[in-house]
Specification:
Shape: globular
Distance between the termini: 39 Å
Helix content: under 10%
Radius of gyration: 13 Å
Number of strands: 11
Largest sheet: 7 strands, mixed
Length: 125
C-alpha cells in the first residue's frame, strides 16, 4: 500500500493553467502505473490521464487530449498533471491513483489499488 497526497489545485480563470502534483510515499513509485481521475458535483468519477511504470506509455481522455500532460519523476516519487487551456467544464476534484502493475496503463478506476484524497480545481468562466 502507498500513500498519495495531491497538491496544486485552486481557482483559475478559463484559459489558464495549473500543475497538480501527487506525492507518493510508502513504496517506490517505480512499481506503479499512475492515473489521474476527476469527479465533478453530481457526476461519476471519470478518467483523465494515465502513465505507465516506465513513463513510455500515456493515455488521455478525449476531453483533455492536447491540453493536459501527465508525467512522473520516479526519483522524487511524484507524478504531475500539467493542465493548460482550462475550461469551466474541467472544474472537479482531481485525485491521483496508483496501480501495482507489471506493465500497461489502465483507465478504469476499479483497476487502481490506492487513492489520494483529491484536490479541488475550479475554473471560472
Amino acid at each position: 500500500q502507498v500513500q498519495l497526497v495531491e497538491s496544486g489545485g485552486g481557482l483559475v480563470q478559463a484559459g489558464g493553467s495549473l500543475r497538480l502534483s501527487c506525492a507518493v510515499s510508502g513504496r517506490t513509485l517505480t512499481l506503479y502505473a499512475m492515473g489521474w481521475f476527476r469527479q465533478a458535483p453530481g457526476k461519476e468519477r471519470e478518467f483523465v490521464a494515465v502513465i505507465s511504470r516506465s513513463g513510455r506509455i500515456t493515455s488521455y481522455a478525449d476531453s483533455v487530449k492536447g491540453r493536459f500532460t501527465i508525467s512522473r519523476d520516479n526519483a522524487k516519487n511524484t507524478v504531475y498533471l500539467q493542465m493548460n487551456s482550462l475550461k469551466a467544464e474541467d472544474t472537479a476534484v482531481y485525485s491521483c491513483a496508483a496501480r501495482l502493475a507489471l506493465s500497461g496503463a489502465a483507465t478504469a478506476p476499479d483497476r487502481y489499488d490506492d487513492w489520494g484524497q483529491g484536490t479541488q480545481v475550479t475554473v471560472s468562466s
